[in-house]
Write a structure and sequence with these properties.
- The chain is mostly helical.
- The chain has one domain (about 5-175): Up-down Bundle (Ferritin), CATH 1.20.1260.
- Helix content is about 75%, strand content about 0%.
- It is built from 6 helices and no strands.
- It has helices spanning about 5-35, 40-65, 70-85, 95-120, 135-165, 175.
- The longest helix has about 30 residues, at about 5-35.
- It is elongated and about 55 Å long.
- The model is unreliable at about 170-180 (pLDDT under 50).
- Keywords: Coiled coil.
């Protein structure tokens, strides 16, 4: 494979991640709004803010590499994210605890994908001078902290949905859980 093919593949890869990140931001904000006022609400608002900041970091990286955002991909993912909110969860008029579980899992999958993107970019720092290894390491650490938070929330939702107990995650303050 020649360099032009590799560059084209990098462009496709990053524009796909940017589009997915737009959907992830919307999903995180929606989940945070739905659970505002709950014990998880502040943590989820912090998570949504971090996910939005990560998308901003990705867009900045793309700009430094001269890679444009493909708006049609962003719009397609956002439409899919909105459609994903329409799910049959056993309740018609109120939010089901099952919705929380499914949304925590969807967010975690998105963050796992984002972490993989940061690792892929970190592997390219030797050939792409615009990539900052230190920044990518910080982004990887923040993604791991997000994964850890989402896993705690997911486990608590499993307890609530399938065991009938309000399993709340640890009482660690949101500020202590939010990565720097």
């Amino acid at each position: 494979m020649d360099k032009s093919d590799a560059r084209r593949y990098l462009e496709i890869y990053l524009t796909d991640h940017a589009a997915a990140a737009a959907g992830g931001v919307e999903r995180a904000r929606s989940t945070a709004r739905a659970l505002a006022g709950s014990p998880e609400g502040d943590r989820l608002q912090g998570l949504a803010d971090d996910i939005a900041a990560d998308r901003g970091a990705l867009l900045s990286i793309m700009k430094s590499l001269g890679i444009p955002v493909r708006q049609y991909k962003v719009l397609a993912v956002r439409a899919g994210e909105l459609a994903g909110r329409l799910k049959f969860n056993g309740r018609l008029r109120e939010r089901s605890p099952l919705t929380d579980l499914v949304e925590f899992e969807a967010l975690r999958l998105g963050v796992e994908g984002k972490a993989a993107c940061w690792r892929a970019l970190a592997a390219l720092t030797d050939q792409e001078p615009a990539l900052d290894a230190d920044e990518l390491a910080l982004l990887q650490d923040r993604a791991q902290a997000q994964i850890d938070l989402l896993e705690r929330l997911r486990k608590a939702a499993v307890d609530e949905v399938f065991r009938g107990r309000a399993g709340r995650p640890s009482s660690t303050p949101a500020s202590a859980e939010r990565p720097g």
